[in-house]
């Protein structure tokens, strides 16, 4: 592609580089100049025009953007029609948006002429939500550039993993002085949190804060047909030998992870029992505000892998806005000056 000042007499078929006011009308950039346009330009006294002339092997911006969009489209995402060298990609389902960072980086590394921007990986989306945009910077790119993008793109760089209709059960433990209205609010907050990702709270049970009681309630949740087990203790989990992790192991399950590099949410537990996930919720999950438990719950609800590796990879961006329900906000968790 050649770009620059073109004599008006030679500009037929060129792409107008900058908008112009001609005859009281605005000609937008990207306009393909016709013989009639050249006549009007001459009538307005223009001897040259800043334009781009495509050469053999060049692909016009809209077609190029469409081709790149087709390369990265995965399930749950659709491309809208191209305009001004841009194609927007939108979700077609409710679920968890997933972006393959390596694939996106490879495409963006091919040429400064081709760009792909996405939402953050792991963000919940609804149908119609824009999840990514392809933008071609110049008015055309060489076909070889697009061929290299095709080689490097991989498959389904952007996709939406739809929510699964999980049936969740919640166990809350009590100690002396535990207020029932706090447990009621936790139940309601948990139900709303689950509904937002396509799951349902089918039963909630309360018991003493000891291993045998929690074990019995886990069995009751299994009998109720739950396939996601949620535990929240009257006291936060502080060790693998603590009440909730011990109860998971006592019932025959395993504790895969205790702790996560997301705050609020540090004291989360992830386990498995008979093939189903067991989530020990941190105290901040009593609040409806975003916390680390949401990031794990969303992946479970979307059927996406989540284990120690995924959880410990959440540290960048893991400093989340604090929640008012915390007994000790992190800003106050400092030694007093002497």
TrEMBL record:
GO molecular function, a single term: nucleotidyltransferase activity
Protein name: Molybdenum cofactor cytidylyltransferase
Domain MoaB/Mog span(s) in chain numbering: 169-302
This protein's UniProt keywords: Nucleotidyltransferase, Transferase
Domain of life from the UniProt record: Bacteria
KW Hydrolase (keyword) present: no
